[in-house]
């Protein structure tokens, strides 16, 4: 079984006892803090190795957007204080608007007040130029031949269709740990399951008697156990847990295509001989080399052997990991397989790619019987009516993000609705178009995949894969900080995402826990590309003052012009925040924080890991030329902090994430803030008047299938 090796090898993560001790210390310290009336948010830098950030939704870091290019550089003695007047607008909660325009004191309007829309097609090194150069080639419609796009120019061929995966049955699966042989427990659970296919199948009593005839393993404590591979021949694939009335699959599959996940649960059978008979359809909007199949076990802790057995076996890191996951209600990843997809997108007719094929999983943990069909799309234009609106899952500066279900394929997506008049009034058209352009071009396992974009006269819509493990912010908020191995895993996946963007000449500019989502397995999916700067080759510099206060790089604050290297600064800030609970120069008072970013020495809690410290010092170098990553992502990847990582394997999502978010199904929104999910999901009706020329700016918006990936995104 794959596992996150580094964690096991170096045991960087803290033990439960350590955590308990630390919690106790923290409790003492916070009593102390209350007594002395200080919290770290007040800028106090505690000597304690760990600071407990009192996060809640209101602590979300807000993005600053300044859409003009020049800023007055910060002169420390005086100008830093100027920021105090904008302080409140920067640090308000998530519902507050972006701060475009609120920085006017510090942002010199290089465009002489011209409306940004007027310049959307101009050239030159300003934000507006990005979309102008790109707009002629960002859209199209039609199926497999060269077509005309909305602006009338020739577009590259587009490919899209629907792929249907049928899973009939599975054989040879095992449980990863022995289970209890307690007859009472087994009888209760076995009788609650669905096992019968026909009248000839054995009944529960017969199963129990078969179990009792098994040669049960005896350990030192003379506890009888049933080995995982033996148990599976008798245990139903789905059972009802004591605390529930629902059927719970003990084993299930996920089929993942382009970050859209279908969960395939057994219909009947035993774990070693399963019947699925399930069909799942996927919207195909880009060419991907394979379909990822994962098999997971969801074992209730009631089935585990006694605590004594668990303790005596916990020296085996594999068993310990499995037991830890079961005891904390996490699913266990058993095996996976990448099913190659040689889809002929040019085909005008449907075809079958696999026909009742037995597919053996990678590490020999059983096999599955599947068929795969592909049907080219016929109806290519989408509207909001093609979706059922299910839940509100988030709010950005420009509108709601909703969980939706596409009516024809039943696939669940995230839909971002943006009101055109609003982004026009905020001069945010260019950033919004840049977001769509980057998403349409980028292809990286750690970046949220774009599925479709479409528009109505009043709104722009972006349909993305629904990433349902919640924001990294949400998890960091709950846990305070992450273990070293967990922070390393997220940093490594993000490094790959940023590297891909840089290779496409894009600066991301807004890395922060609020913009990072976890998928159902716990892998990273970077979202929110609204601040991307396109067409930044090599060491090209730009000047726009934007980002998030806590994450702003010194060269950006100083108005010296900045390049891609700012993203490596933000990676350093993020890694520091994941390991300690707060960004390195955090201060509730924004001007003070800026001053600290520019001047204060970087401090580490006692006992901080040596390699992590060395990497952070290199990433948080105030001189961009001396910052690690100045010569490309490769030099960060080669740092000792990542020495145990196989980057190819990481890229293939080959490491099991250190934490799997509790996700029950593709519909599950439990990892999202109730503040949003309790809202009624409606696409509000607006009747804004937008002139013909304004509407034309959105001419290249629609996306229904993959666009050619160029060397760079422009
Ligand atoms: N693909 C997705 N799957 C699940 N949730 C998502 C997805 N995309 C966005 N969200 C949720 O919606 C929130 C807002 O989305 P996003 O950050 O893209 O909006 P925005 O308007 O660009 O926000 P901001 O004001 O931060 O720039 C995210 O923080 C996230 O919680």
TrEMBL record:
Presence of keyword Membrane: no
Stretches assigned to the AGC-kinase C-terminal domain: 643-713
InterPro entries reported for this sequence: AGC-kinase_C, Kinase-like_dom_sf, Pkinase_C, Prot_kinase_dom, Protein_kinase_ATP_BS, Ser/Thr_kinase_AS
The protein's enzyme class: transferase
Domain Protein kinase: 387-642
Keyword Kinase: yes
Disordered as annotated region, ranges: 13-62, 83-155
Organism domain of life: Eukaryota
Compositional bias (Basic and acidic residues): 14-37, 45-62
MF (Gene Ontology): ATP binding; protein serine kinase activity; protein serine/threonine kinase activity
Assigned EC number: 2.7.11.1
Catalytic activity: L-seryl-[protein] + ATP = O-phospho-L-seryl-[protein] + ADP + H(+); L-threonyl-[protein] + ATP = O-phospho-L-threonyl-[protein] + ADP + H(+)
PROSITE patterns on file: AGC_KINASE_CTER (PS51285), PROTEIN_KINASE_ATP (PS00107), PROTEIN_KINASE_DOM (PS50011), PROTEIN_KINASE_ST (PS00108)
Extent of Polar residues compositional bias: 83-100
One GO biological process term: regulation of fungal-type cell wall organization
A Pfam family per the record: Pkinase_C
Keywords per UniProt: ATP-binding, Cell wall biogenesis/degradation, Kinase, Lipid metabolism, Nucleotide-binding, Phosphoprotein, Serine/threonine-protein kinase, Sphingolipid metabolism, Transferase
Gene3D superfamilies assigned to the protein according to its UniProt record, in alphabetical order: Phosphorylase Kinase, domain 1, Transferase(Phosphotransferase) domain 1
Binding site for ATP: 420
Family that this chain belongs to: Belongs to the protein kinase superfamily. AGC Ser/Thr protein kinase family. RAC subfamily.
Protein name (record): non-specific serine/threonine protein kinase
């Amino acid at each position: 079984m794959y596992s996150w090796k580094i964690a096991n090898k170096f045991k960087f993560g803290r033990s439960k006892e350590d955590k308990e001790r630390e919690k106790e210390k923290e409790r003492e310290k916070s009593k102390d803090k209350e007594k002395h009336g200080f919290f770290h948010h007040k800028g106090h830098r505690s000597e304690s190795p760990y600071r407990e950030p009192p996060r809640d939704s209101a602590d979300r870091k807000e993005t600053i957007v300044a859409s003009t290019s020049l800023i007055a550089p910060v002169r420390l003695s005086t100008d830093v204080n100027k920021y105090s007047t904008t302080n409140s607008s920067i640090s308000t909660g998530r519902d507050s608007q972006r701060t475009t325009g609120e920085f006017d004191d510090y942002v010199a309007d290089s465009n002489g007040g011209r409306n940004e829309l007027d310049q959307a097609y101009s050239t030159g090194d300003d934000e507006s130029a990005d979309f102008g150069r790109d707009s002629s080639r960002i859209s199209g419609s039609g199926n497999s031949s060269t077509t005309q796009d909305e602006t009338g120019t020739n577009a590259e061929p587009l490919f899209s269709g629907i792929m249907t995966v049928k899973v009939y049955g599975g054989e040879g699966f095992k449980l990863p740990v022995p289970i209890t042989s307690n007859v009472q427990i087994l009888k209760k659970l076995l009788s609650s399951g669905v096992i019968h296919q026909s009248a000839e199948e054995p009944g529960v009593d017969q199963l129990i008697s078969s179990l009792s005839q098994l040669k049960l393993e005896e350990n030192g404590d003379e506890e009888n156990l049933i080995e995982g591979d033996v148990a599976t021949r008798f245990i139903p694939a789905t059972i009802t847990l004591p605390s529930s009335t629902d059927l719970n699959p003990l084993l299930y599959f996920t089929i993942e295509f382009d970050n859209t996940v279908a969960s395939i649960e057994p219909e009947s059978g035993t774990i070693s001989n399963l019947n699925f008979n399930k069909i799942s359809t996927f919207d195909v909007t880009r060419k991907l080399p394979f379909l990822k199949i994962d098999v997971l076990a969801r074992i209730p802790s009631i089935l585990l052997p006694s605590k004594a057995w668990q303790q005596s076996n916990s020296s085996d890191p594999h068993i310990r990991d499995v037991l830890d996951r079961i005891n904390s209600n996490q699913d266990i990843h058993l095996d996976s397989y990448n099913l190659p997809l040689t889809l002929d997108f040019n085909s005008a007719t449907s075809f079958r790619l696999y026909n009742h094929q037995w597919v053996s999983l990678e590490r020999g943990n059983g096999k599955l019987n599947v068929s795969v069909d592909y049907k080219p799309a016929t109806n290519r234009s989408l509207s909001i009516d093609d979706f059922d609106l299910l839940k509100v899952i988030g709010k950005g500066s420009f509108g709601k993000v909703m969980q939706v279900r596409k009516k024809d394929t039943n696939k669940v997506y995230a839909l971002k609705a943006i009101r055109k008049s609003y982004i026009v009034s905020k001069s945010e058209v260019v950033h919004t178009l840049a977001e769509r352009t980057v998403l349409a071009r980028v292809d990286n396992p750690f970046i949220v995949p774009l599925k479709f974009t479409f528009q109505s006269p009043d709104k722009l819509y972006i349909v993305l894969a629904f990433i349902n493990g919640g924001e990294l912010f949400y998890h960091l908020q709950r846990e305070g900080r992450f273990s070293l191995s967990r922070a390393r895993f997220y940093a490594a996946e993000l490094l790959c995402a940023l590297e891909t963007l840089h290779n496409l000449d894009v600066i991301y500019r807004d890395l922060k826990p609020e913009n990072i989502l976890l998928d159902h397995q716990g892998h990273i999916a970077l979202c929110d590309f609204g601040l991307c700067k396109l067409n930044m080759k090599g060491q090209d510099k730009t000047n726009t003052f934007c980002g998030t206060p806590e994450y702003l790089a010194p060269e950006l604050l100083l108005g010296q012009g900045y390049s891609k290297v700012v993203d490596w600064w933000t990676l350093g800030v993020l890694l520091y925040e994941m390991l300690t609970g707060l960004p390195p120069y955090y201060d509730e008072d924004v001007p003070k924080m800026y001053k600290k970013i520019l001047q204060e020495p970087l401090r580490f809690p006692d006992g901080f890991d040596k390699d992590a410290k060395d990497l952070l010092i290199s990433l948080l170098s105030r001189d961009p030329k001396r910052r690690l990553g100045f010569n490309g992502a490769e030099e960060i990847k080669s740092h000792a902090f990542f020495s145990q990582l196989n980057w190819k394997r990481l890229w293939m999502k080959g490491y099991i994430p250190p934490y799997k978010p509790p996700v029950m199904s593709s519909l599950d929104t439990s990892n999202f803030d109730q503040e949003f999910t309790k809202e009624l999901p409606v696409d509000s009706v607006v009747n804004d008047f937008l002139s013909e020329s304004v509407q034309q700016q959105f001419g290249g918006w629609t996306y229904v299938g993959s666009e050619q990936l160029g060397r760079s995104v422009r």
